[in-house]
Write a structure and sequence with these properties.
Radius of gyration: 28 Å
Strand order of the largest sheet: 1-2
CATH architecture: 2-Layer Sandwich
Order of helices and strands: HEEEHHHEH
Helix content: 55-70%
Shape: rod-shaped
Number of helices: 5
CATH topology: Protein Binding, DinI Protein, Chain A
CATH superfamily: Skp domain
Distance between the termini: 46 Å
Number of strands: 4
């Protein structure tokens, strides 16, 4: 069954790819363009801005985590020294508090990573939305009936590819994208 669906999908793609760019239907001209959305996103200056912001945030998180780790190591060393001299009940209490600090540090690290991931994903979503708007504007201007992903097209004329124009317009429209660290 899946093989049959794959064959039908290939046939459909071949049929679309073999239709001339200005194929006639009964009333209107059917025109389509092709775009590589991954390339549009990857080549955008806004994505580079996001990556720079993320890099700075990653460095800041690493510095904070390194400081916290050094504090915990020092406290661990101090606890090891106190093991023989401190009363047992007091020592156990200190060890329990130390373990809580370790768990808190781990939780903070996980929360930092989660915020980092959320900020990146939200920025990428916003960038995709803007890229789609740009492609939509181009399609409207050209009175295009359909925009196809280059992944769905096997062969097409170069004039039908709007990727470079979409990159140019997206870069003019969106130079930076602020990250939300909430």
């Amino acid at each position: 069954m899946q093989n049959m669906l794959k064959i039908l999908a290939v046939i459909a793609i071949l049929m679309v790819a073999s239709v001339p760019a200005y194929a006639q239907d009964a009333e209107n001209k059917l025109q389509f363009v092709v775009v590589n959305m991954q390339e549009v996103i990857k080549s955008s200056v806004a994505l580079k801005s996001v990556e720079e912001q993320l890099s700075e945030k990653r460095k800041a998180l690493q510095v904070a985590m390194t400081k916290e780790e050094q504090k915990l190591r020092a406290e661990d060393d101090a606890l090891k020294e106190q093991k023989e001299t401190a009363p047992e009940a007091e020592f156990k209490e200190r060890v329990a508090k130390f373990k809580e600090k370790i768990l808190d540090a781990q939780k903070k690290a996980q929360e930092g990573k989660a915020k980092y991931d959320r900020a990146y994903n939200a920025a990428l979503r916003a960038l995709r939305i803007e890229a789609t708007k740009v492609v939509g504007d181009i399609a409207k201007e050209r009175k295009v009936s359909m925009v196809l992903s280059n992944d769905a097209v096997i062969l097409s004329e170069k004039e039908l590819d709007i990727t470079k124009e979409a990159i140019k317009r997206l870069n003019a429209k969106l130079k930076t994208l602020p990250l939300n660290w909430e």
